[in-house]
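Case study B.
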Amino acid sequence: MNFGAVSAIYQAEMARFFRTLLQSFISPVISTSLYFVVFGSAIGGRIQEVEGIAYAAFIVPGLVMLSVMTQATSNASFAIYFPKFTGTIYEYLLAPISFLEVTLGFVGAAATKALFIGLVILATATLFVDLTIQSPLAMLAFLLLTCISFSLLGFIIGIWARNFEQLQLIPLLVITPLVFLGGSFYSISMLPPAWQIVTRFNPVVYLISGFRWSFFGQADVPIGVSLLAISGFTALCLGIIWLIFRTGWRIRS
Amino acid sequence: MPPIVSVRDLTKTYAGGFTALDGVTLDIEEGEIIALLGPNGAGKTTLISTICGITMPSGGAVEVGGHDVVRDWRKARDMIGLVPQELSLEPFSTVWNNARFSRGLFDRPRDDAYLESLLRDLSLWEKRDAKVMELSGGMKRRVLIAKALAHRPRVLFLDEPTAGVDVELRKDMWRVVERLRGEGVTIILTTHYIEEAEAIADRIGVISRGRILLVERTEELMRRLGRKELRIELAEPVDDVPETLRRDGLERVDGGQALVYTYDTHAERTGITALLADLQAAGLQLADLSTSNSSLEEIFVGLVKEDA
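Model:
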């Protein structure tokens, strides 16, 4: 195992993050505050409660998830796409490093950034609402698993993308709608029965539901199913990455 | 001693059907400098990329330090450094961090003293905190060299190292190459410039259309090159070379219409003056004189043409 390479990639990626710390920090804080103003105060003033939870507090897990998923995906996809774009990918192909080590370095860094942003948003949220987290450990575990699995997804997108437009395509067309339709701002039980069934096919539902469970002790789907879903998703992404490196697809001619 | 790089019947056909390497076999000895000479698209870069593991071979085998580059890739790659043709660098990172990163990728422990001496050798020390994007093209190439040497490779590949490079950098680069040679590092470079290959390479390989046409020691090639022919057209044909003219290198050609004298331009005495004096003494009338030489350029062009 080439840990030197893992650490070199991780550090180089984190250095990029710290170079743009202000942007990395400020944009999620501002967008979260906006969500609270719009959903928490304006709409929340009319909805009051969802399943016995104040609406402003109810949306916190969904908001954190929304940012974490988009940040993890875009960070990881950009991180691996950029060397392809500048041509420095040759160094990763040349060095004595395996796919596992490359993935660990890039995905580890992207997940760290996403985790950081998730925690910042959570901290921002406490400025607007009273939050009690029922099982902090489960909350952290869900957050971490989401950071990792969506960084893996971003990594795949970055390898697949041939230009900057494609890099934006999946997050814009797939992830954002799935998150918005995944119960970020409402409970699945509020939907008509037919749509409740459709929603069951949205993987993000399971993540947000499980994450919300760790805050309030109640969920749209059983917590075990949520755990299974996110583990399955992580395993699927890992499998795809393993295949990509095995065949050299879009990387090694 | 077994060769440090051993290439056996290597073929590479790209997905589009283009055959870049067509059965290349080549042994490179440890510590030698070998220059691969060939026109654009000859397969030089593909050959290097395949040895380095960037491109997967379609057939044949490559060993570096006795390790197969496909099966035993980790050990093989550990020995290799590459300076690519393109100026591919992380633009937002500093010179120092770029070099450190490359060292890290090869799992070498931190060694700031070595990196400092490396950057000083390449006149990069003053620029160590500059971002790569702020550097000129020549400086960027120096950074590429520093990155390739950051982990102290045993085998160094230089792909067109002096294409578009100024005199200053060329001098610096050859100084570094000299030092590496002293340390026993094996160097494989590709180039368009014949003089460059002559100046530093122990052996020269000519490659065209994916095949190695010739690999020869540089002196050997130079000797072939250093030979010149003096053609003496006679006013009257001779049936036989007169006794007084007979010597090594003189031949009667074209049915006695001309004499051709082959001589070594590097020799202390070419023998031309003596030959001309003897010609006069023998009473032969000269119609014309001409000389021709075979430069590496000509050998090279000839080989490539023959192949086409």
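Residues 99 and 245 of chain B are 66 Å apart (CA to CA). The remaining cases will be described in the next quarterly update.
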